[in-house]
UniProtKB/TrEMBL annotation:
Alphabetized GO MF terms: protein tyrosine kinase activity
Any one Gene Ontology cellular component term annotated for this protein: plasma membrane
Native source organism of the sequence: Candidatus Kryptonium thompsonii
Full protein name: Capsule polysaccharide export protein KpsE/RkpR
Transmembrane domains' residue ranges: 31-50, 359-378
Length: 410
């Protein structure tokens, strides 16, 4: 290099100063400038030749929750708890993440490819759907922003087609979402319908049995305390059965180990304990005045009537709950309306979105500059070597010498 690299008499190499680095850069300036210029020029040409793409954007928000059970009082509260499960996927806690999964699905991508004949547009010679889907994925971007809005971005060389594709993704999202919701709602309707039909059968049996008992023994009246206890127990038992229906739906949707399933099981267990206390009485109720008379304290014949009347009341209470639930399940199954709420449809963009030509050129320029500066220092180091340990070192030296000769570096 220069005397900064000269070996001292004690065998140690002289220290390298900052000016030595500037000296190397100055010495190899022609090599650096020419190569960086050529590579940057190529980058400019390539950037100019890259096809322009436009970005069209559509936005979607989560569906608003509507309360259609508000006029049903306490019964409506119970049914409202079922509403998300009856509505299937659209009633879930995170509908936008469901939308993301649908938009990124192969089914959605293939529908867009077929609609806009993208195999031809993208110039895929072997007509491969897989390649077309892969290309389309690279030209789409779906995300949920910080405001909880689903953003659909589509890139294309044609600004009108970009907007049309973004809007068609919304149509596809609606179509697939309706299909999935309908399928889920049908499964829920089948579960509820089975329980509804069983309830009708049980109610008829309870009515017939109670009627026969009344005709045989002539019992048609219960004391108010006993009647109140029966009605309270019947309502609680009807709620237990309803919660068991809900538990069945939860188990099918989320599995046995889901937190929602475990919570529902605990609630059912607690209600069963309370029901047992009402039937058998508790230590607390024995020592205090109670509105409800434990069933076991009723005389034998009255107890038989009580049980029959209780079974009848249970089926009545359950029917009050299950009928509107069943009707709502049928409505949800037959729904065929768009559920996706569009905030903004895409319009043809005015400005190009990519390529980022300036960024491409600057990145290539910076990378080339760093690369050739490093090569210059390596070459200078090779040219200053006095000894070569192997043939590889010698070849590297010869290469550095050849480069120096080409650029007339002495």
């Amino acid at each position: 290099m220069n005397e900064g690299h000269a070996e001292r008499t004690d065998g140690r190499q002289a220290e390298v100063g900052i000016w030595d680095y500037f000296y190397v850069l100055y010495k190899w300036r022609k090599f650096i400038v020419i190569n960086v210029f050529v590579i940057t020029l190529v980058a400019v040409i390539v950037a100019l030749l890259l096809p322009v793409q436009y970005k069209a954007t559509a936005t979607v928000v989560a569906p608003r929750k509507t309360d259609i059970f508000g006029g049903l009082g306490a019964l409506g509260q119970s049914i409202r708890e079922f509403a998300p499960f009856l509505r299937g996927l659209s009633g879930g806690q995170l509908p936008l993440f469901t939308y993301l999964a649908i938009l990124n699905s192969r089914t959605a991508m293939e529908k867009v490819v077929e609609k806009f004949d993208l195999i031809k547009v993208y110039g895929i010679k072997d007509s491969s759907m897989e390649k077309a889907v892969k290309k389309l994925r690279s030209n789409t971007d779906f995300e949920i922003d910080e405001n909880g809005i689903l953003v659909i971005n589509v890139y294309d060389r044609d600004r009108q087609r970009a907007a049309d594709m973004a809007n068609y993704f919304i149509d596809v999202l609606n179509e697939i979402n309706i299909k999935l919701n309908t399928e889920e709602a049908r499964n829920n309707r089948i579960v509820i319908e089975k329980r509804y039909l069983q309830n009708l059968s049980d109610l008829r049996a309870a009515e017939d049995t109670l009627k026969k008992f009344q005709q045989r023994y002539g019992i048609y009246y219960l004391p108010e305390q006993t009647k109140a206890a029966i009605e309270a127990a019947a309502e609680l038992e009807a709620r237990i059965i309803a919660e068991e229906v809900k538990l069945g739906i939860l188990q099918r949707q989320f599995g046995e180990d889901a937190p929602e399933v475990k919570t529902a099981m605990i609630q059912i267990e607690e209600m069963k304990k309370r029901l047992n206390q009402m039937k058998e009485g508790s230590e607390k109720s024995k020592n205090e005045m109670s509105l409800f008379v434990p069933f076991k304290d009723v005389p034998e014949l009255g107890l038989q009537y009580l049980r029959l009347y209780r079974d009848y009341e249970i089926q009545n209470k359950l029917l009050e709950f299950i009928v509107p639930l069943y009707e709502q399940a049928k409505i949800e199954e037959q729904k065929n309306v768009p559920v996706v709420q569009v905030l903004d449809y895409a319009v043809p963009p005015e400005k190009k979105a990519r390529p980022f030509r300036t960024l491409i050129v600057l990145s290539v320029f910076a990378s080339a500059l760093v690369l050739f500066i490093i090569i210059s220092f390596v070459n200078e180091s090779l040219l200053n070597k006095k000894q070569f340990l192997n043939s590889l070192d010698l070849k590297a030296y010869n290469f550095a010498r050849k480069v120096a000769n080409i650029y007339k570096i002495s």
